[in-house]
Design a protein that fits this description.
By secondary structure, the protein is α/β, with parallel strands linked by helices. The protein has 18 helices and 14 strands.
Length: 384
C-alpha cells in the first residue's frame, strides 16, 4: 500500500509541539495517527510507547519513574488505555527547564478530552486528525475519496471490493473490540442496529424520540448511543446557530457521518453506481463535502442555521469577525433561491458559497458564489 504524505497535518503537529508542553492528536482508529507519529519519532529520535503493547503497558505501570528521566520528545499512543497517567503528565510538563515534551495519541475515548483538559489545562494543545482530505489525495481523486471515504486502508485498497471488505471489518472490530475496550458495556448488536438506523438520518435533524421508538429504547438511551458515536469520531453533531430575528428556528443538531465510505458501507452502497442510483445520493454528497468544507475553512466552531419552513444554510461559521455560509448542492447548475437570500439578510453573511460537483464557478447574486467542489480549499484561502 502506497504512502500519501500529510504535510499540512504534520506541520500543524510540529508547530503545536514547539509551543505546548503536551500535544494531543485525536481521531478515530486506523486514520493514520500512529503512522504519522512514528514518522515524527524517527526524525526526532523520540521515545515511543504504544499502550496496545503489553510490554509498553507494563513499563508505564509506574509512569513517573518511567518518564521523568526522558528527554526530547516522548510519544504515548492509545493513551485512553491509561487515563490515570494525566496527573503525572501535568507534573512532568511543569518542570523548568523542560527536558521533555509529550505527544499523546488518543483513539475514540469518550473521556479523553475531558480528563486531559482537567489535568493539563493551559499545558495541552489538541490537533484533530481524520481520514485523507482532498489536498492530500489530489483533486483528480475526489470521486474515489467520496465513494471509499478517507480511511487510508479503505481509500488505498486495490479495488472497490477490497475497500468495502476493509470497511465492513472495521465496523465489526469497532463494535466488538474498540467499544468494550473503553469500558462501555453495550451489546455490539444493539449499537450496530442503532448505527445502521442512524445512517438513514444522515444529514437530518436529530429526533431521539423517533429513533428510540424504532429501536425499542428510550430517547435518553438513543441520545447516549449518539454521544458515544460522536465521541469516537464516527458521527458529527452539527449544532444549530440561533439568531435574534423573531423567527422559529430549528434547535436540534443535525447528524452527519464523518466518513462517507463508512456511511456507504452501512447503507450497503457498494460502488459508484449504487451511490449514484441511491435516494441518499444528495445526503451522501452533502455529508462528504461538509467534512471537506470544515477541514478547508477550519473554523473555531461550525453550525447550521434553519428557520422552520422558510430558510436553511448547511454550514455557518464566523472567521475574522465576518460571517460566512456554505451550501452543498448535487445539481448541474445551482440557482439562487429565496432561502439563500433570506440567509444572506438575516445572518448578515459576508459571502455565501454554493458547492456543486460541476467544473465552472459563477456568481449567482451579490456575494453568492457557486464553486466547484474541487476548488473549496482555494475558496477557503480567499477569505483568510
Amino acid at each position: 500500500m502506497s504512502m500519501i504524505p500529510r504535510k499540512a497535518l504534520e506541520e500543524r503537529i510540529r508547530v503545536a509541539l514547539g509551543r505546548s508542553q503536551v500535544t494531543a492528536m485525536l481521531g478515530p482508529r486506523q486514520c493514520g495517527k500512529s503512522t504519522l507519529a512514528r514518522l515524527i519519532a524517527g526524525e526526532t529520535k523520540a521515545k515511543y510507547f504504544d499502550l496496545e503493547s503489553a510490554s509498553d503497558l507494563r513499563m508505564l505501570e509506574q509512569p513517573h519513574l518511567a518518564l521523568e528521566g526522558l528527554e526530547g520528545l516522548v510519544i504515548i499512543d492509545e493513551i485512553q488505555r491509561m487515563p490515570g497517567i494525566f496527573p503525572t503528565l501535568r507534573v512532568l510538563s511543569d518542570r523548568k527547564p523542560l527536558p521533555a515534551r509529550f505527544l499523546i495519541l488518543g483513539s475514540s475515548s469518550p473521556g479523553l478530552i475531558r480528563d486531559s483538559s482537567e489535568s493539563l489545562a493551559g499545558r495541552i494543545e489538541f490537533v484533530e486528525m481524520g481520514g485523507f482530505s482532498l489536498p492530500e489525495v489530489g483533486e483528480d481523486k475526489l470521486e474515489q475519496l467520496w465513494i471509499r471515504g478517507g480511511f487510508p486502508r479503505s481509500f488505498l485498497a486495490k479495488d472497490d471490493s477490497d475497500s468495502r471488505a476493509w470497511r465492513e471489518k472495521f465496523v465489526q472490530t469497532f463494535l466488538e473490540r474498540d467499544i468494550p475496550s473503553l469500558g462501555i458495556s453495550i451489546p455490539s448488536l444493539q449499537i450496530r442496529r442503532f448505527w445502521m438506523m442512524l445512517a438513514h438520518y444522515h444529514g437530518q435533524a436529530w429526533n431521539g424520540s423517533e429513533i428510540g421508538r424504532s429501536l425499542g429504547v428510550s430517547d435518553h438511551t438513543a441520545r447516549r448511543y449518539l454521544d458515544l458515536l460522536s465521541a469516537t469520531f464516527m458521527v458529527r453533531q452539527l449544532q444549530p446557530w440561533h439568531e435574534n430575528i423573531g423567527k422559529r428556528q430549528v434547535k436540534s443538531p443535525k447528524v452527519y457521518f464523518r466518513d462517507s465510505g463508512m456511511f456507504h458501507a452501512l447503507m450497503d452502497l457498494r460502488d459508484k453506481d449504487s451511490v449514484m442510483s441511491s435516494p441518499k445520493l444528495g445526503a451522501s454528497w452533502e455529508g462528504f463535502m461538509m467534512e471537506e468544507a470544515i477541514k478547508a475553512f477550519n473554523p473555531n466552531a461550525a453550525f447550521f442555521w434553519a428557520v422552520h419552513g422558510l430558510a436553511e444554510i448547511d454550514l455557518f461559521f464566523i472567521s475574522n469577525a465576518r460571517r460566512y455560509g456554505v451550501e452543498f448542492k448535487w445539481n448541474d447548475a445551482p440557482s439562487a433561491t429565496r432561502s439563500m437570500r433570506t440567509a444572506m439578510t438575516d445572518l448578515k453573511l459576508e459571502r455565501l458559497f454554493v458547492v456543486y460537483p460541476g467544473k465552472k464557478g459563477y456568481l449567482l447574486d451579490d456575494n453568492i458564489e457557486v464553486i466547484p467542489a474541487k476548488t473549496i480549499y482555494a475558496a477557503a484561502k480567499s477569505i483568510q
